[in-house]
Specification:
It is globular and about 50 Å long. By secondary structure, it is an alpha/beta fold. α2 crosses α3 and α4 runs parallel beside α5. The protein is 47% helix and 15% strand. The model has no long low-confidence stretch (mean pLDDT 88).
């Protein structure tokens, strides 16, 4: 089962991708997770990705595709996957189709739809632990102590990522609206795209995703 989960930044793709992948018995990964992993290891691809992410613009296709294809081709992911946040351009979608030509292609694409106003509210309150990388949100899942990780074994400090700051958030949403729409049209025309209301409760969104994939 090969599934793509799409939606704007702040739509909850990460949470839902992990849950959906567990239900399907496959692996999940986001392009953002791969970018940050390469940055932590200070690879050449990681350095390139950082320079773009801090400005709130997409990383060039060749960099993104290189990271994603390396992950997909890992034997541990041969049973299928849930991709979170990829593809984001027509070139990426075509490259993915070409790579999966002998592996059954993409089975389902599900879009989590959220209004721009709700996205700004969600992203503006997002914080990340500098130790264990657990995400928090001041609006929906605040820490027990402001600025501190809840995990007693971690005791990390919470910070706001550069790409979650207000001016960058606005730019990320603008870029998403401009550049991602053609990809949604691409998959809608292929007859494999479903839409899910992302402003429901987390559980309701998860149930709707499961129903869309089963359909």
């Amino acid at each position: 089962m090969n599934v793509i989960l799409m939606g704007p930044p702040g739509s909850g793709k990460g949470t839902q991708a992990a849950s959906l992948a567990e239900k399907l018995g496959v692996s999940a990964v986001s392009s953002g997770d791969l970018f940050r992993d390469h940055q932590r290891r200070n690879t050449e691809l990681g350095q390139l990705a950082r320079s773009y992410m801090e400005r709130g613009v997409y990383v060039p296709d060749d960099v993104t595709i290189g990271m994603i294809m390396e992950w997909i081709n890992d034997p541990d992911h041969s049973s299928g996957f849930v991709l979170d946040g990829f593809p984001r351009t027509q070139a990426q979608a075509q490259a993915l189709d070409d790579a999966l030509e002998d592996r059954g292609g993409i089975d389902h694409v599900v879009l989590i739809s959220v209004s721009d106003d709700e996205l700004v509210r969600r992203l503006g309150g997002r914080l990340t632990c500098d130790g264990c990388q657990i995400p928090y949100n001041l609006n929906t899942s605040p820490p027990l102590v402001i600025g501190k990780c809840d995990d007693d074994d971690c005791d990390g400090t919470l910070y706001q990522r550069e790409d979650d700051k207000a001016e960058v958030v606005a730019r990320r949403i603008e870029v998403y609206n401009q550049e991602t729409q053609p990809i949604l049209d691409y998959y809608r025309e292929a007859g494999i795209l479903s839409d899910v209301d992302g402003e429901q409760s987390v559980g309701s969104v998860g149930d709707a995703l499961q129903s869309a994939v089963n359909a």
